[in-house]
Amino acid sequence: MKKLKLGLPKGSLQEATIKVFERAGFNIYVSGRSYFPHIDDVEIEPVLLRAQEMSRYVEDGVLDCGITGADWIAENESKINTLADLEYAKQSSVKVKWVLAVPESSAVKSVKGLKGKRVATELVNVTKKYLKKNGVQADVEFSWGATEAKVAAGLVDAVVELTETGSSLRAHKLRIVATLCESTTRFIANKKAVKDSWKKKKMDQIAMLLKGAVAADGMVGLKLNVEQKNVQKILAALPSLKKPTMSQLSEKNWVAVETVIHEGKVRTIIPQLKLAGAQGIIEYPLNKIIP
What we know:
Blueprint: E1 4-10, H1 14-24, E2 28-29, E3 38-39, E4 44-50, H2 51-60, E5 65-69, H3 70-76, E6 81-86, E7 97-103, E8 118-121, H4 124-133, E9 139-142, H5 147-152, E10 158-163, H6 167-171, E11 174-182, E12 185-189, H7 191-195, H8 197-215, E13 219-227, H9 231-237, E14 245-248, E15 254-262, H10 266-275, E16 279-285
């Protein structure tokens, strides 16, 4: 039996990735310290790896495909195929980004002020390219962690760190000077594996299901019945991805309406629908939305 070697990210992306796979229809079980999870698909052979390393192993062909961040693809300068750009927190306006930060008391106001300074980061190559692009010569060193503390201890002048809201940086009395890049989660594939028809078909199926699961995040379905004379009032109150689906009921002059909306809007919309004449309103969760 052919197997698809799939890399799953260990660490901060692990839980979110497993949840997305579950909504996509794949149940994954991780046992203790094991790096080889169980998945209920005999054609998939999963392995847990750090997201930072994933693109290198996919590029080298050790893995056929894997989940990692766009930032680590850029950092490793990996030559791979992106099968899907996934946004795990799709309903949130918060973006994961790499930022340049300095102490609040620092005289550095922009990247230009880092000339001759020392910068610590885990994203070394991307940082060096950013400095070069801005014509700044600085010493960039790799940091294994606790990067913010190195500034407080006076070991470095600035850091390039991954952040969402910036709260951790502010807690360490750091000030953001610039944003180097934003990052999204990617489903990537080895170029040789893509040329294998069986593997390509399998990966395309997984990509489609993952994108469907991400698209359904934060969304719910609504069903309701309405008398024909109240249809326009219902449609005016009812937002949807596209036009709602409508079908004639067996009872004369009544129709069924079905649509998809953001979960956060339901508590406001349902009372409006009821006032507009809707009956038999049903809200139901969604696992996937496939275009």
